[in-house]
């Protein structure tokens, strides 16, 4: 049984009584008469070959209250794109695939590049950005959700719960964020959320002082979750980060543009599992290390815009403060795991914290050396100002890819 506390600055939607998915879907069918709903799925082609996405698509085929599905496809050749068209053809909803490696979308990207408005390197942020553009151009929905394509434990009840707060016409929420426990294979997962972000937010408050922004972020049970829903109008004004700071960046943009009373988080699952990354890549810089560096820099940039004195000297203090807080948190998680009969590898947990500690220093140094970095992709409002006809042309390019010869 979940808790029922409302002890942050955003609303918590708990799973108090395990309301059946069928009951939620009945309500959503009614909501859809006023607020039509769409889903964005950013995907690598490789995920079409795994078990997670096959299950997601099979279940989505029975979601009759969903109006549109927009799939962003990365790392796909022409033959793989044609395979993807067949793969997703079982969806009864209006659905379109954005072939991000195709000549039509690359041509639009080249136009944006000339004006300094291109979304940058390939990656999830770029993928999501183009999908949000198509969603705006399609203009079929009033609410849109996003989640990853590698969720092994996905079921349609997760989507129903995620949508409910923003789709309910009697509610005033514009953004909902999913949260859940990360437990699989008899152990705790979610190292970046547990061992980096949580202790880091506490440490930032100790070093740079409390702020409404840090209190807002600290209110989220799982700020790194990739599952969120929003009113479609929100997509026009937010700047989506192009790096691994996507989730923190989106939360920061929602904080900047909307009142906290319009933001909520929703318990969407008892448990959740997806693919896991190694601490580092083969060269020692990829994996979770790169992700964490981007997340830390995203937080530092936001604090700097709010007037915090983010200096080289403060990073060394932050590093030491984080390390002590993180070790304390490890002990809390160890006791929690023991009480629940879970395995707990103390060595690996402390090794992760030691790596995260070094990443904080590296991210701080990178921030000082490159203070003018612009990791955010321009908002669609700005792009439309520079290219008034770009969204219709994006729509036409996607239509041609999905219906014609490629």
TrEMBL record:
- What is the organism field in this record? Mangrovibacter phragmitis
- SUPFAM superfamilies tied to this protein: Nucleotide-diphospho-sugar transferases
Q: Name one GO molecular function term.
A: transferase activity
Identify the InterPro entries for this entry: Nucleotide-diphossugar_trans
Q: What is this protein called?
A: Glycosyl transferase
Keyword annotations from UniProtKB, A to Z? Transferase
Q: Please tell me whether the keyword Transferase is annotated for this protein.
A: yes
Tell me the superkingdom of the source: Bacteria
